[in-house]
Amino acid sequence: MRRKLAAGNWKMNGTGAALSELSALIAVHPHPSCEMLICPPAPLIHRAAALVQGSALAIGGQDCHANETGAHTGDVSAAMLAEAGATHVIVGHSERREDHGESDAQVCAKAQAAIAADLVAIICVGESLAQREGGQTLQVIGAQLAGSVPEQATGANTVIAYEPIWAIGTGKVPTLAEIAEVHDFIRAELTARFGAERAGAVRLLYGGSVKPSNAAEIFAVSNVDGALVGGASLKATDFSPIVAALNAA
Ligand SMILES: O=C(CO)COP(=O)(O)O
């Protein structure tokens, strides 16, 4: 059985004052059946990890460099995130692919670095609106999976997040049938590459305008093992009902 995962990506939002949201989340969900994760901006990770210690809430990074050390001004290595208290890291988010021109090969190298540092890599894939309207969605997702998911991926060290770019921060959500089609496709692609047992252990998250009002119906979709939530993860009052919906799924 795959343990469900409710993951929040704060993106470039939140200063020290926002850490109280973590305490609020833990207070509402002290013993969730799903796994809970918040990925705050890098400068908050150490404080966030100290604050949640001993609770059911885990802390993750939003990106890591592929190298362990070196002359990479402004970058952070996977081992640094782990030392700061992170247990997970998002790699290949569409905003990084777009803002920083990250290729599938670079995302794959980042995922390998994350796994080598004992972090769970949350590898993001997703099509643009033009690609969806052009009927290329599965082809795009297939290529991203082939290029971004490393050979050593297992259910223990890798999570895949499907985030259609046009659904991020827009309030637009694919139909449940569209989500099911892509998630079933991702499972099939992983199965073809890694075999049914290994592929069957990898959790698949949906991301893109997940809110308290649509979480339950999304969590009922085939091969949806949780969510990667942006805007609605910033406030415990929004994220808590999403966690509750996943616990009930
Ligand atoms: O990009 C996302 C999470 O990584 C989704 O963001 P929103 O939930 O704000 O649409």
Explain this structure.
The protein has 249 residues and is α/β, with parallel strands linked by helices. It is built from eleven helices and eight strands. The two termini are 13 Å apart. It is globular and about 45 Å long. The protein has one domain (5-248): TIM Barrel (Alpha-Beta Barrel). Helix content is 41%, strand content 16%. Strand 3 (57-61), helix 3 (78-84) and strand 4 (88-91) form a beta-alpha-beta unit. The model has no long low-confidence stretch (mean pLDDT 97). An eight-stranded parallel barrel has the order 1-2-3-4-5-6-7-8, surrounded by seven helices. Helix 5 crosses helix 7 and helix 7 (137-148) runs parallel beside helix 8. Bound molecules: 1,3-dihydroxyacetonephosphate. 1,3-dihydroxyacetonephosphate binds next to strand 8. Residues 9, 93, 163, 168-169, 207-210, 228-232 line the site of 1,3-dihydroxyacetonephosphate.
